[in-house]
């Protein structure tokens, strides 16, 4: 695996955790560093770090607050 790729993974704890939990990524990243984008997308999907996940969580929180306020009336 290339040095800059190792540094990028080690700088992000969730990426490093995902790599430890799914060790098959070592094989792909060692063979070709272009798999990094796929690795990053899978990690974001698993840990719900995509923009759509964050928006969905915000909407869920707003719904929860509005339901609590409606029940207090």
Structural class given helices, strands, pairing?
mainly alpha
**What distance lies between the first and last C-alpha atoms, to the nearest angstrom?**
59 Å
Largest sheet: none
Round the mean pLDDT to the nearest integer and report it. Answer: 92
Following the backbone from N to C, one meets helices and strands in this order, namely: HHHHH
Low-confidence stretches: none
Describe the structure.
- The protein is mainly α.
- It is built from 5 helices and no strands.
- It has helices spanning 3-11, 13-21, 24-31, 36-46, 51-72.
- The chain is rod-shaped, with a radius of gyration of 18 Å.
List the helices and strands and how they pair.
Blueprint: H1 3-11, H2 13-21, H3 24-31, H4 36-46, H5 51-72
Which features does this protein show?
5 helices, rod-shaped, mainly alpha, 73 residues
Offer a concise description of the structure:
The protein is mostly helical. The protein is built from five helices and no strands.
């Amino acid at each position: 695996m290339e040095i800059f790729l190792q540094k990028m993974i080690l700088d992000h704890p969730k990426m490093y955790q995902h790599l430890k939990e799914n060790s098959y990524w070592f094989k792909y990243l060692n063979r070709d560093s272009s798999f990094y984008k796929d690795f990053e997308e899978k990690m974001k999907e698993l840990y719900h770090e995509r923009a759509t996940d964050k928006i969905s969580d915000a909407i869920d929180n707003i719904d929860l607050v509005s339901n609590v306020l409606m029940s207090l009336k």
